[in-house]
Amino acid sequence: MGSLILLALLVVVAGWLIGAYNGLVSLKNQTLNAFKQIDVQLKRRHDLIPNLVNAVKGAMDFEKSTLEAVIQARNQAVKVNAAGPEAIKQISQAENALSGALSRLMVVVEQYPQLKATQLQEELTCTENRIAFARQLYNDTATQYNTKQQQFPTNLVAGMAKAQSADLWELEDQAERAVPQVDLSTKPKA
Amino acid sequence: MTDEASLNLFQQQEANRRRTFWLMVGFVAFFAWLGFGGDYIYHLYTLDAPRRAYHHDFPWLGIGLSLVALALAWYAYKTGPDKVLWSTGAREVLDPQDPKETQLVNVVEEMAIAAGVPRPRIWIVDDPDPNAFATGTDPLHSHVAVTQGLLDLCTRDELQGVIAHELGHVKNLDVRLMTTLAALVGAVALMHDGATRMFRPGGGGGSRDEGRKAGPFVLALLVVWIVSWILAPIIAQLLALGVSRKREYLADAMSAQFTRNPLALASALQKIEGAEAPTTHIKRGAAHLCIADPLGRRLTNHEGLFADALATHPPMAKRIAILKGMGYAELKKEGGAIS
Q: How large is the ipTM?
C-alpha cells in the first residue's frame, strides 16, 4: 500500500516536471520568435527609408537637416543591427534614435500639402506602428517568460530548461519618456 | 499579458476545440436519433403486418441519415468560412485600390503583429452599415471582413480596435466554433425545409389510413420524433445565440490588450451603435459572428430574461462602459489626463 502511494506521488511529480519544463521551453521559443518579429519589422523600415527619402527629396529641399538626420540614423541602425540579437541594448538605442528622426520628419511632411496627399503619412504611421506592436508582443512574451522562471515552483526547473531572463525592449530616448502634453481645451476632436 | 491571461487563452482555445468537437458529435447524434427513431417506429408499425407484406427490419433510414449528417458536419467544418463569406457577398482585398483600403490592410497587418498570429485574409462587404466579423478554422486559415460602412465611419484608431477585437476571436479559436455552428445551423435549416416538404403532401412517408392500430408506445415515440423534427432548427438557433454572448466581452478585452487603447474601441462601438440601419448583407445564420448584431440593436439595448434568450450580443452600453473603465484605469496609471 505504502509503495503504491509512493508510486502515485512519483508519477504526479514526474508529470508536473514534464509540464513545467515543456512550458518553459515553449515560452523561451515564443520569446525568441517575438524578437525575430521585431527584427523583421526593423529590416522592413531600413529598406523603406531610401524610397521615402527619394519621395520627399524633391518637395522639400530646404529641410535638408531633417532628412540628413533620418539617413544617418538609419545607417547607424543598420550597422548596429548586424551585430545580432545579443546587442539588444545598442539596437534599441539606435532604433529609438531612428524613430525620433522619423517622427520629426513626419511633422515636417505635414506642412507640405503635396506630400500629405500621397500615402506617405499612412505608410510612415504603419511602419512605426508595426515596430511598436512587434516590440509590445516581445515585451509581453518576455515578461511572461521571466515571471514564469522566477516563480515558485517553476523556478526549480528553470536551470534544467536553461532558462535565462530575457531583456525587455526599453525606451532609451529621453524625449519619448517625457510626459506628453495633453490638450485640455474642449474643442471637438477632428 | 499576465501569466493568468495566457493561461486563460490556452484554456479558451482548448475549450473551443472541445466545444466544436462536441457540437459536431451532437449534430450527428441528433440525426442518428431521427434516423434510427424513424426506423424503430416503422419497424414496430410493420411488426404485425402479414407475412408477405414489407417488414422494416434493417435500419436503412438511420444509417443513411447518420452518414449524411457525418458528411454534412465534415463539409460544414471544412467549408464553413467560405460559405459564411459567400453568404455575405464579401469581396477579398488583394490589391488595395483607395487610401481607405490601404489603411485597412495596414491596420490588419499591424494587429496581426500585435496578436502574434499570421495575417488573415481581408474582405470587404459592400454594406453601408458599420459591422465586422471574423471567420476561419484556425489562425493559419482565418478571414477578417468589414463593411464599407465601417471603413467610411471609423478613424484609424477605431478601426484598429475593431480589427483587434476580431483577431481576438481568431486567436482564442472562437472562429472555429462559431463558423462551424453557422454552417451547421444552415445545414439544419436546409434539411428541415427539405424534410417538411417531403412529409406534408403524402410523400414518401407511411400513409396512415391503413386502419392498423398502433400501440400507445409507438404513438408516443412518433410524437416525440415529430416534435424533434420541428424543434431542430429552433434548438440550433438557440445554440448559436447562447454560444456567442460571453465571447464578445473577452474579445473586447483582448482588443484592449493588443492595442493598449480601449477607448478607441469604445468610441468605435458607440459609432456602430449610433448607426441605425440593419446590416442587410449579413443574414441571420452569421449574426453571431459579428461585432454588433447585424439585425438591429433593439434587443441588445438592455439585459434581461427576454434579451438574454433572444439576443446574440451583450448590451452595447455595458461593453462600452467596461472598455471605458479599462481606458481610465490605464490613463490614471500613466499619470495622464483625459481630454
A: 0.78
